[in-house]
Every structure is written in structure tokens, then in C-alpha cells.
Amino acid sequence: MTKKPKLIAFDLDYTLWPFWVDTHVDPPFRKDGSGDIIDMQGRNIKCYKEVPEVLKRLHTEGYLLTVASRTSEIDGALQLVKLHGWDKYFSILEIYPGCKITHFNKLKTKTGLDFSEMLFFDDEHRNKIDLQKIGVHTILVKDGVTENLVKDGLQEYAQRFQ
Ligand SMILES: [Mg+2]
């Protein structure tokens, strides 16, 4: 049987959406008349194209989905998660600055899962290096999360922990 992670965690900036929520856009965010998400300047805020489908599918398949972000724009990040309708997919949101080892220690405490049961997607190499130290398998994201990247990530995980 293929070994699967119990928990899949996602970074936010340049992983689920193509910007830094603390610098490139202007919170607060809201939906306009046509249902598009906009910021204070009226700019259209979009996530990476395949992200909604990926999250929906993983949630349906029974994975525990969480966020681990080190942004300082906590309110804005939470607003965007909610406006995208992803609050129904994510069980736990760890969003605050600092080394991501802290975020994963919290996830471990809250879920009772071991680090080896978690898979993480993040665009920053420094986070991958940090999480290697505690044994969280991290997939480096290049151009946002896609179906293929998640498929490859799950395969990589299965090979490592078979
Ligand atoms: Mg990022």
C-alpha cells in the first residue's frame, strides 16, 4: 500500500497565491459586485489557477489540510483564506512571523501527529532547510501549487516513508 501523509500543510505567499500579502497588495480585502476579490485599491486578487481544485480534492480524499505561513499581515491573510472559501478546507491555520519550526511544533501539539506524517508545500528554500531538521518532508514550489506538483509530492513522500 502507498504510504500517505495524514496532514498536508501549505505556505500562502507564492504557494497558494502569487504575491506577498504584506507588501504587494493592500488589505483589507472584499468581494465586489461581481464576486471578484479586490483590495483597497480595487485591484483584482487572484490565487494560482489550480489551487481551488487541488484543495477541494485533497479535502475530499480525507487529508487534514493546514496553513503554515510566516507573514506579518495576519488579518489580510485570514481574510483571503475566507474570501476564497478555503476556511472549509483548512482545519488549522498557523499564520505569524518567525521560523516555521514553531508553526509545525504547534501543528504537532494540536493534532497529535508526528512530523513524519506531515507533507509541506512552500516556495522558500530556507523553510525547507529548517523543516528538514525536524523531519517534515517539504516540497519546493516554483510557480504555485498545481495538481501535478501535489501528485509528485505525494509520490516523493511515499518513496521516502515506504
Ligand atoms: Mg511563500
TrEMBL record:
Entries under SUPFAM superfamilies matching the protein: HAD-like (SSF56784)
Molecular function GO terms recorded: acid phosphatase activity
Pfam families: Acid_PPase
InterPro entries for the chain: HAD-like_sf, HAD_sf, HAD_SF_ppase_IIIC, MDP-1_euk, MDP_1_eu_arc
Protein name per the record: Magnesium-dependent phosphatase 1
Organism (species): Armadillidium nasatum
